[in-house]
Amino acid sequence: MARASRVQVVLGMGGMRTLSLARKTACLLSPPTGHRPPGEPFPYIEIPTVFRNPFLLTDAYLDQDSEGRRPRIVPGPEGLLKAALVDPGLTATLPPRIAGAMFLDSILQSLEGYLAGDGNFLSDTLFARALKLLGEGVDDTVRGSRDQRPRDLRARVKASQAGILSALGLATCTSGAGSALCHSIGSLFDAPRALVGAVLLPHIMDLHLGARAEKLADAAKALGEDVFGLTTAEAAARAPARTRRIIAQLGLPGRLRDLDLKPAELVDAAEAASRFDAKDGLPMTVDSLYDILKRAY
To answer: 134 lies in which domain range?
Structure first.
């Protein structure tokens, strides 16, 4: 349809799945297809209606292979994304419970970037600020869920700002095992990415308590935990404890089995996730990823 109508620009508006499809469409329209000059990618403009997208400021997109629906990250042509419009008002219709799940998924995205082995001073600064905004915003969301204030935009503004900061950071470094598992479960079984990320977050934090305790302690402080006078190990343990409180306060699913996933499906999810490049320090073997899923099941 896009080829026959000789469109001038592709506009993607929606959540992560819709935006990935729109990016793929723009890539398929790039030369030699269409009427663009040789070597120039087809112009693509993005308007997310959610406040987190790890591919926001890159030219890549999440796709599925032709067999088995296994997810893969496809690099688009350089310069594909011409502009992105981020408007927190577009997230106003999200119920507080779903918005809360997206907050936790955003924390997972930012935390794994913060823990990435290929991170740098700039990315660490961006992720630390993103975590602080997310910690403030999720508190507003929890209060909104109690007070029935679904249209309170203060939390959504902070989340959108954090999403941009996190996307900036992820444009310079790699995410981790939790994000890879979210991609695989979402693609293979159509499970909501935000709910999967919310379930996995405390378990990913638990696995980092030993080797990355110092950074996890910094993350706990950024998320609003009072860590004054605590040892590094005690402060780090506050991070997963905080996320579990948020899950309980929002009434979110706490286990993968609550998302109607079957135990046999976890092996397929682990196998698909093992194909991703992740550098948060956790092994990316099928067995290690399967162990994470068993913890969260």
So the answer is: 97-296
Q: Are residues 16 and 156 in the same domain?
A: no
Q: pLDDT band at residue 56, thresholds of 50, 70 and 90?
A: very high
Helices (H), 39-153: 96-115, 121-147
Cβ partners under 8 Å of residue 15, min gap 6: 48, 49, 50
Q: What is the CATH number of the domain that holds 230?
A: 1.20.1090.10
pLDDT 10s digits, 188-208: 998 999 999 999 999 999 999
> Quick one: 191 and 49 in the same domain?
no
Measured distance CA(165)–CA(131) in Å, rounded: 9
Is residue 92 in a domain?
A: no
Residue 12 lies in a domain: yes
**Which letter does DSSP use for residue 148 in this model?**
T
Structure tokens at 41: 């990618």
Between CA 14 and CA 103 the distance in angstroms is: 17
Is 42:30 a contact under the CB 8 Å cutoff?
yes
- Rounded average pLDDT over 251-278: 93
pLDDT of 211: 87
**Model confidence band, residue 140 (pLDDT cutoffs 50, 70, 90):** confident
DSSP state letter for 258: G
Structural domain count of the chain: 2
CA neighbor of 247 nearest in space, from 280, 296, 177, 283? 296
